[in-house]
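Figure 6 in text form: structure in, sequence out.
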């Protein structure tokens, strides 16, 4: 049964299925939103936190978290390029803390389960329980994207020879640049004072290997970036257990990591947990993740199934022929 559940969650990233029955049962009167694709999440949300979210600093864009244990001001400065969404500006399964959290720009808070928080709605928002959702609706497509980026072939490289200046050398193909940073060089990335991207691409994917022991403090105090790079760049930390960021730019996929920051993260954050000592700035992804998936397309599954059935039939015919008595 656990294997079946895992398959169903992975297929949710590519098939327009209905939401989990458990989420609907928990709120039978709530309207269910269609599960989002990874591309839609990257363009609609500022943060997706799998377990606990707490921060004393602002979150500019939309947030979804399993449990909000504390916060400051939400949706205070949404990016004008952020895509419209059926979801609220704050979405949580449970809220256990938020003594006096501000929700700006008319935003509402969607809590699916229990709420022990107090929200100050600035502009007409309210506390609701729609649309209904499960965390798996967000985890499945983002986990699949992370795994898919890990499988991409690199077409660009980097220079880590200067301990103070980590350079990415982009040579994109069809607008997409892919860089793979070794585990040994990842440590240099997290201590370099300067991080530079040389060249440009409409979509930049940096797959950072290693990180099982975590990275305590991100570098990049002289990270040269602007809105265009922030919105084109996706970092993939699939193996990281913990990450500490300082002056970081671009979307971060860290599905297994406990993340903290001491300065703003300029882009979407996907993490296992988050303790914010800096703001999360809304920089909706403007690139494309088309074709990046670790889950086979339905047509591929069908072809593989047909091939297995054919192989089985051929084996049975051969066994029957072998069992016939010689003439």
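Output sequence:
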């Amino acid at each position: 049964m656990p294997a079946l559940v895992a398959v169903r969650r992975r297929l949710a990233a590519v098939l327009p299925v209905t939401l989990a029955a458990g989420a609907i049962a928990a709120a039978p009167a709530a309207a269910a939103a269609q599960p989002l694709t990874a591309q839609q999440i990257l363009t609609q949300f500022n943060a997706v936190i799998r377990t606990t979210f707490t921060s004393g600093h602002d979150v500019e864009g939309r947030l979804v978290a399993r449990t909000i244990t504390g916060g400051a001001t939400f949706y205070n400065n949404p990016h004008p390029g952020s895509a419209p969404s059926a979801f609220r500006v704050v979405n949580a399964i449970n809220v256990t803390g938020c003594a006096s959290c501000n929700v700006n720009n008319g935003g509402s808070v969607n809590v699916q389960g229990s709420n022990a928080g107090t929200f100050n709605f600035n502009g007409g928002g309210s506390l609701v329980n729609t649309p209904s959702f499960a965390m798996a609706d967000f985890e499945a497509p983002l986990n699949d994207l992370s795994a898919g980026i890990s499988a991409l072939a690199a077409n660009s490289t980097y220079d880590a020879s200067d301990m103070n200046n980590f350079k990415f050398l982009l040579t994109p193909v069809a607008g997409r640049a892919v860089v793979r940073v070794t585990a040994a060089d990842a440590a240099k990335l997290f201590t370099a004072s300067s991080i530079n991207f040389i060249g440009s691409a409409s979509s930049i994917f940096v797959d950072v290997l290693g990180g099982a022991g975590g990275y305590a403090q991100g570098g990049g105090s002289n990270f040269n970036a602007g809105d265009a790079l922030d919105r084109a760049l996706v970092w993939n930390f699939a193996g990281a257990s913990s990450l500490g960021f300082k002056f970081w730019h671009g979307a971060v996929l860290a599905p297994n990591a406990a993340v903290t920051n001491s300065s703003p993260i300029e882009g979407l954050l996907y993490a296992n947990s988050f303790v914010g000592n800096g703001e999360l700035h809304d920089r909706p992804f403007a690139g494309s993740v088309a074709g990046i998936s670790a889950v086979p397309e339905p047509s591929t599954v069908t072809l593989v199934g047909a091939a297995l059935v054919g192989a089985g039939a051929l084996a049975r015919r051969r066994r029957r022929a072998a069992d016939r008595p010689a003439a």
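Caption detail: The first helix runs from residue 2 to 11.
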